[in-house]
Give the backbone structure.
Amino acid sequence: MTEFNTVRRAGAGVRSAEIDAGLRAHMNKVYGLMSVGLVVTGIVSYFVGMDLSAAVHGEPTRFLSYGVINAMFTSPLMYLVMFAPLIMVFMFGAAVNRLSQAGAQMFFYVFSALMGLSLSSIFVVYTGFSIAQIFFITAIAFSSLSLWGYTTKKDLTGWGSFLIMGVVGILVASIVNIWLASPAIMFAVSALGVLLFAGLTAYDTQKIKSMYLQVRSHPDGEAIAGKMAIHGALSLYLDFINLFLMLLRLFGNRN
C-alpha cells in the first residue's frame, strides 16, 4: 500500500510537471506572437510616421511619395486606414476558426501592419522622445500587470463584464468627443482608459492561462491551443496598444 501511494504521488508529480511545462510553452508562444506583432506595428508606424511628419513640414520624404501620403491621409482612403484594424478585430474570431494556424498567424501580422499604419499619425502629434519614453513605461507596466495576472491566486473572472462595459463606455465617449472636442472629456477618457486596460491586461493573462488548462486534456488540445495562442496574443496586443495610447494622451509631449 505504501509503495502504491508513493507511485501515485510520483505519477501526479510527473503529470503536474508536464502541465507546467506545457503552460510555460503556451504562454511563451503567446508573448512571442504578441511581441512580433508589436515589432511589425512599430516598424510600419515609424517609417510611415516619419514620412507623414516630413510631408506636413514640407520636407523631403524617404519612403513614400507625397501622392501616396495625400491619398492615405487626406482622401476618403483615410477612413479605410483608420477603421481597417477595427474591422479586422471583429473578423478575427471567425477568421481563426476558418483558417489554418499558419493562416491565422499571418492574419494577425497583417492586422499588426495595418494598426501601425493607423497609428503613424502619432509621430506628427507627439515628439519622438516622448513616444519612446511612454512606450518603455507601458512595457514595464504591462509586464508587471501580466505577471501578476499569471501568478495571482485571486479569481479575476468577475472583472470581465465590468471591464468590457467600461471599454464600451470610453469608446462611446471618444466618438462623441470627436464633435465636442472637449479636453476635459479626453482627459477623463484617457485616465479611465489606463485603469481599464491595466485591469484587462491582468484579466486576459489569467484567462489565457485558464483556457489552456481547460483544453489541454481535449483530444485535439494541442491544435486548439495553437489557435488559442494567436487569439491570446491579439488580446494582450490590444491591451498593450490601448494602454500605450492612453498614457501617451495623458503624459506625451506634443510637437
Remarks:
- The CA atoms of residues 68 and 74 lie 10 Å apart.
- The first helix runs from residue 2 to 56.
